[in-house]
Each structure stands twice: as structure tokens, then as C-alpha cells.
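Z., the sequence and structure:
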Amino acid sequence: MKLTNIHFPSRNILLGLFGIIIISMFTACSNKINFLNSSVVPAARGTVNITKDHNKNYVIKIDIYDLAEVERLPAPNHTYVVWIETNEGLIKNIGQIKSSMEGLFSKNLKASFESVTSFKPEKVFITSEDNADIQFPSSQIVLTTKY
């Protein structure tokens, strides 16, 4: 029985294609979205990264820069609350981003947030609220991924 060897350049091409396939599998599971410009906090900018974990839940990671302290907004409040709008049209409170008074903001007004939900998010938005455990958002939307 005669064994045939794959020529060296062909093997490199096959390995390269295999590597591209593996990388695209990992990046296809990630969805990075920029927040739109805010009329409430014009300097604020940030991204939302949505991935699925091994339990098929959605992991939502948010990074925000230049987000003013919630007490300094035109309508001051106590906390920022992160919401999702699901693919079924439901609005869900998924957590809070505390102000610099609680230590999660740095001197550069950076904030990070991470949460897991079983609901598929179609939209992510942040409001300023008096209370973090509310069930419905106020009308002061600070940042949103789409209108």
C-alpha cells in the first residue's frame, strides 16, 4: 500500500483555511454594537458586546467612556439602569451601573457592566433612575443602541 504525502505548500494552505474557519466560528458568535450619540450626555460613548455562553444564555458586556456622574445630569438621579428590549418586545431591567460615589467609575468616567440573560436582546439602553430595582424605565434615556 502506497501512502501519498500532501505537498508542503498544499498543507500550509489547508492549515490556513482551517485556522480561518476556527476564527470565524468564534467571531460569528459575538455581536459588538456602538451606542448612538446621546443628547443627554453628548460626550458619552460606549459599546455593547453580546455573546452566547455554553448554556445558550446571552452575555451582555458594556464599556462606557465619558459618562457623566448621574447626579450631574439635567434631571439628576441616583443610578444608571441598563435595560434590554427582547425580540418579543418585552423590556427587562438587567442591572445598574453605579455612579462614581460608589466607586465603579474611574477618574476618567469609565464604566463597565456585565450581565447574563436568557432573553435575546434586540436593543440595549441605559436610563437614569432614582431606584435600581424598578420594573419600567423612565423617559430619560441616556444611551441606546438604536431608536
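The chain has a mean pLDDT of 82. The chain has one domain: 31-144.

Let me know what you think.
H.
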